[in-house]
Each structure stands twice: as structure tokens, then as C-alpha cells.
Amino acid sequence: MNSKFKILVVDDEPKIVDVVKAYLEKDNFDVITAMDGLEALNLVNKETIHLIVLDLMLPKLSGEEVCHKIRAYSTVPIIMLTAKADEDERIEGISIGADDYLTKPFSVCELVVRVRALLRRTYRDSSPMADILTFNNGDLEVDIKKMIVKKQGEVISLTTNEFKLLTALIANPGQVFSREQLVEKAFGMDYEGFDRTVDTYIKTIRQKIEDTPKEPKYIITIYGMGYKFIPSFIEVKQ
């Protein structure tokens, strides 16, 4: 895995932070750390971060609150850590925006494997694109590195899967993809969902980025074949 990826590790236990940081750096990741929720949010706002390892039990601001606030403007992948093994806790973590979940005590080697897998699924198609793409004279703006989408200058909230699907389409403007091809391109071969879930994702993305979702100008349905992204105007910012 390329060392260009920056990981933020957030935990109030110094020993855990030190061990996780050491293992991730050994795997050639760039690692920064935070000991509380407020420090974590400040770093997210200042740095370009590609993945967050986030403990739930944090001082100043809980992990749940940190995740909720980040999800208001970013789809950066998040792996949550918790000392609670209760199923309700795991469901709550996923529902507020976590992409993966590990219960303490955990294997650091397993965490590194999960980090690699989540990064691979999330960023597999982002490298060839410019940092920021804008469409229709600024009507839609997509920041690839920060995983932020704006509609008419206002940040809109997309889930990680919605963002991955949108960027997969954007990376290949005008190309028609079947549902199966989009699943493979956006989520990878190990994705456990069904190809028909693509329709649901497309519907919610349209509700967020289209002026009139039932008459879309960006994501077009090609009946009997699939979907394609139509940029009527593209401006690239470096």
C-alpha cells in the first residue's frame, strides 16, 4: 500500500496509540494522532486525511459525536474501536457513519489488514483524477482527496458508498456501466451487497446532486444497460 495515505489514529490510551502508530508506519503509512475528540476534529479540518481509526470512548467529545460531525461534510472512511462488544453498539456505530468496527482488545495486525482493505476499496479509482473537479460552472464540485461534495457551494452529505459510486462514474465520463460493473469498479470484487443496491445509491445521489432528480442532468439511465455520468461542462482545479 502506497505511503501517500495519511491515517489519523484517535484514542486516549497512549499505549494503544503508540502500538497502532508503529504498526501502520511499518506498513509505510503516514500517521498522525489525537488523544481526544476535539483534537481529532481540528486535525480533520486542517489535514488531508485518508482514513480515521476512531475510539468511541474519548474525552472532550465522544467518538460518536466526532463521527457524526465529520459525516456532515466528509465521507472519509472511519474504523471505530470500542471496549463494548454489544451488538447494539456495533449497529449504532455503523448507523452514524462508521465503515468498519473492531472490539477491544483487538489484533493490531488485523487492524492493519482492515485499514489496507478499506483504503483499497475507497481510493482504487481516485488517483488518476485531479484534486478538485467542478461541473456546470460550479454547480457541482467534487474534492477527491478530501472526499467532499458541494452543490452550488454548499457541502452535501454523501455516505462513503455513495461517494465511491459517484467518483467511479465521474472517472469515466460518458461511459455506460452495468450495475455489475459499477459494483466491481466502486466497491471491489469482495463487496457483499447486491448489484440492485446500485439503483438505491443512484436514487439517493440524484436527490442530493440533481436540481430535478426525476430529470437528471448528471447521472443518466441508459435503459436495459445501466448508468453513465454526463458532464455538460468541466473545469479542473489543481
From TrEMBL:
The keyword Cell cycle does not apply. Residues 130-231 form the OmpR/PhoB-type domain. Residues 6-119 form the Response regulatory domain. SMART domains: REC, Trans_reg_C. Residues 130-231 bind DNA. Keywords: DNA-binding, Phosphoprotein, Transcription, Transcription regulation. InterPro entries: OmpR/PhoB-type_DNA-bd, Sig_transdc_resp-reg_receiver, WalR-like. The modification 4-aspartylphosphate is found at D55. PROSITE patterns: OMPR_PHOB (PS51755), RESPONSE_REGULATORY (PS50110). Pfam families: Response_reg, Trans_reg_C. This is Response regulator transcription factor.
